[in-house]
Every structure is written in structure tokens, then in C-alpha cells.
Amino acid sequence: MDELLTGDLYRFEDLLPDAERQVLHRVRAFLRKEVAPLANDYWARAAFPKQLIAGYADLGIAGLSYDECPGEKPSSLLSGFLAMEMAHTDASMATFFGVHTGLAMGSIAACGSPEQRERWLPAMGRMERIGAFALTEPEGGSDVAGGMRTTARREGDEWVLDGAKRWIGNGTFADHVVVWAKDVADNRVKGFVVDRGTPGFTASKIENKIALRIVQNADLRFDGCRVPEENRLQEAHSFRDTAGILRRTRSGVAWQAVGVMLAAYEIALEYAGRREQFGRPIAGFQLVQDLLVRMLGNVTASFGMVVRLAQLQDAGTYRDEHSALAKAWCTTRMRETVGWARELLAGNGIVLDYDIGRFVADAEALYSYEGTREINTLIVGRAVTGVGAFV
């Protein structure tokens, strides 16, 4: 069985039962063999390695959390470790997988009728069909709950969608896009599954990104796009239901942040051991050791937070403020940690050859998506004071 990751100083992985640890190691082996060698090349070209989807599907982990998909259900701890492991290899591919399994499949599982869940989730669990999640808009990010401009208008047995979405991961090639739009009749947010190729629906790739370049983020347009009533998520009645999806996936982003900073620490540690200056490895210099220990402290503290969060999830006692604090804290520590790793590598830290440049850039996206630090801070602040400070 694989050894623990170098950065897992407190041996958090030992908390997994043997069967789940074997799943983690199987995924780790795939990521190291198939994904890691391709990451820098595809990142540099801003291209997506579609040939890897079959390999991810063969792992059999995409639909494990959902009753409609076969297989033994994983603990929240294993799900977290899998998100961490994917980001430890490449944050873009971790985002691709998280959008598909967490945001898209999670929306259908939480807000779909039994018939809808049976119609979509099994094929998505086998990754025969890929999903996307469309919430953010060109003029609406943190304020999208109240300022959503994409509208839905019912006409008989169809809904007519008009508007635009932006930053939609997997948006250029997804088979099913979960689109959130405001019903003009009652002013409430509802969810719709829009299939690729639906008339009135177009997607265009966002170019010139400096982070998560492998992720195919898209601008989506809906111009009189007609969606049948059977594609309206039957249990999505307001933005409260949308927020419930984000609460669950936010914890996954915190785990991804741990994976990114753990990778940065391990890259820096390995580099320090072989890079020589003044006639000896820089690992023997006090200031270098100080950087390494600060990085390891961030990794370990954040690791402990997300492990406890997973335990609360499995116990059914976690709340919005738990995942919000984890997302805000871990992504902030991640941003700090990758910066120290880049500093340790000096000029070599800004080229892809040593990997760390990719992690530094990708950290910026994780820091912002699925709720900025400021928004998550206000969620926690409201919980601890009892007073909402949102505008």
C-alpha cells in the first residue's frame, strides 16, 4: 500500500478505514500515472484532455455519493480526501470533477424528482454524460441571489429562458447544464437542466485566463431557449435550494485548497533538498527551513479543519458556517502557502518546469470561486453574532 503523502505529518489519512484507503490509493495511482504527466502541457495550451474522462470513469467514483448510482457509499471523509488528492495533482482537473459530480449531479440529486434523478444520474455517474452548473452571471457574482438577470417564463409545457451566464466550468462541452433562472411570474429562482444543442442555447470559451487554464470555462447565452417542464428541477423552489448545493460543495473547495498547498509544500521540500547554493543544499539554511515549517503548519492546520468538517457532515450536524469558515480559512492559507513555495524556488518558481507556477496561478481561482472570502466571512459572522451584515 502507498505511503502517506509527505505533507501529512499528523497522519490524517490513517483515519480512513482500510477499504476507503484502498480507493484513495487507486485514485492516487491513476492521477500520478495519467494526469500528472499531461498537466503542464494542457495548462499551457488552455486545452482539456478529454481522453482522460474514460480513465476517471473507470475509477468508479463519480456517482458513489448518490443512491441512483451503484456502489458502496463513501464517507464524507473519503470524498474529501479524493477532492484533496485530485487538487494535489492538478487543480483544474479537480475542478472539472467537482463541477460534474458536486455541482451538476448534486443539484439533480438534491432538487430533482425521483424520475429526474433516475433519468440523469446513472449516466452521469458513469461519466457517459458530463454536467455543468450555471449560476454566475456577467454582471452578477456575489450578489446573484438578489440580482439574477437570467429569466424563465412559462409557456404551456415549456419554459423560455433568456439571459447570460459566465465562468461556467465544463460549459463548452457539457451534455447537461443546470441553469438557475428567475421565474418572472413569482420572482423566485428555479433550476433547469438544459441539454447541449438546445435551440437558443450557445456556449463560447472564455479565453486569456491566467488560472485553471485546463478548465473550459464558458460564457453561456440563452435567447428564447425553450426547455420542457420535465427538465425543470421539481424540488428547486427558491435560491435557498441553490444555496444548499453551494453549502455542500464549499467543503469540497476547502479540501481542494488543502491539496494545492500540500502539493506546493512537497514541491518546495523536494527542491530544497537538491538545490545547492554556497556549496550545499538550501534545505540546510535557517530561512529556508522557516519557510518550509510555516508551509507545513498551514497544511496541517487546514487538514485538521477539513477532517473535522467531514466528521460533522457524516454525523449530520454540520451547518453553513462550518463549510463557509473552512472555505475562507483554507483558501487564504493556500494562497499564502503557494506564495512561500514560489519564493523558495525563486526564479524557478515562475516556470511550469517545476510545477509550482501552475499551483500559484490556480490558487487564485480557488480563492474566489464558490463564495469569496468576504462572502464566507459574512456567513460565519452572521452565525456567531446573530446579526446579518450583508448589504
TrEMBL record:
Its cofactor is FAD. Residues 18-128 form the Acyl-CoA dehydrogenase/oxidase N-terminal domain. PROSITE patterns: ACYL_COA_DH_1. Residues 132-225 form the Acyl-CoA oxidase/dehydrogenase middle domain. One of its GO terms (biological process) is fatty acid beta-oxidation. Residues 245-384 form the Acyl-CoA dehydrogenase/oxidase C-terminal domain. One of its GO terms (molecular function) is acyl-CoA dehydrogenase activity. It comes from the Bacteria. The keyword Lipid biosynthesis does not apply. Keywords: FAD, Flavoprotein, Oxidoreductase. The keyword Transmembrane does not apply. PANTHER family: ACYL-COA DEHYDROGENASE, ACYL-COENZYME A OXIDASE. Belongs to the acyl-CoA dehydrogenase family. This is Glutaryl-CoA dehydrogenase.
